[in-house]
Each structure stands twice: as C-alpha cells, then as structure tokens.
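ok so for the tutorial part 2 we go from a plain amino acid sequence to predicted structure tokens. step 1 is just haveing the sequence, like this:
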Amino acid sequence: MKLYIVRHGEATSNKEGYIAGHMDVELTQEGLTQAKLVAQWLSSHSFDVAFSSDLQRTLVTAHEIMKFHEDLSLEQRISLRERDVYDLAWKNKTELAQEFGVGIDEIYTVLLDEWRIESNNSLIERAWLFFEFLKEEYNDRTILLVNHWGLIKALLTHIFGEHPAWGKCEIVM
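step 2 — the prediction. this is what the tokens look like for a chain of 173 residues:
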C-alpha cells in the first residue's frame, strides 16, 4: 500500500487559536491557497481511492485535489473526523494552556481529567480500525487520505508505535 496523507488547509479555528474538533469550520483564504498548492503538487500522482472526513475543512481541501483526478471518487467517513472535544469546542488553546500550565501540544492529555474529551487511545483506535480496513481492502493500491492533524497523529502512532508529541501510545481494545 502506498498512502498519501494530506492535512486540510488552515481553518478559521486554526488561525484564531480555537479548538474545533467536530465543529464544521471553513478554510481561511490562506487555507484555500494551501489546498490549491497541494492539489497542484499531487496532480502528477495517481490514486486508486481517496478518503476524507466529512467536515468542510477536509472536504474543501480534498475537492481541490480531486479537480486534478476527475476519474477518482471521494469517500467521506465520519470515523475520520478530528478528535471529539465536546465542551472544549471554541475554547482558546493558548488560554487553556496558560490556565493549566502546560504547552499547547499537551492540552488534550492534561484536559482529559478536567473535561469530557475523546482520549488519545480512542482516537488511535479509530485510526487503527481505518488502517486495518485499508490494509484489508486496498493493500496493493495507492490511497489518498485528506484529514485532520489529530487523526493523522493517531494514524502515525499506530503505524510507527509512537509520535514525538505524544510519546509511546497504547491501544486498549
């Protein structure tokens, strides 16, 4: 399997420093430019199948790429959404990090005890299930995945066993 993983372009929540999670937010003008640039870069590549979450920021990015691959259909998956942050949606990351005395990359780990939020293990499990599906159904194919940074980190954690921002992660099933 050859897997091309693309993160969506800059979203309004990214630019403004807010947590979006499952909220449907738009790309900024810069994000749209980023999507067009990655689409041009990938225009010479060939894909057998394409997947994306069903949230607008990934779909807009994916559709820019798909303009160069008109014979390819895009499969949207709810299971590929970003980490579910429930009540943390629209909270400012910097303010939360300061309040809890942690770095921005540590927010989710620290806030698991304070807020209702999808755990790293749950996110990694979702990524693991999707990766196992890809191996079973498309193992000899070239796959495009347009997604969110949280799920991408979880997928990399599953594939490589750890991620620099998270350290070693354990999948509990």
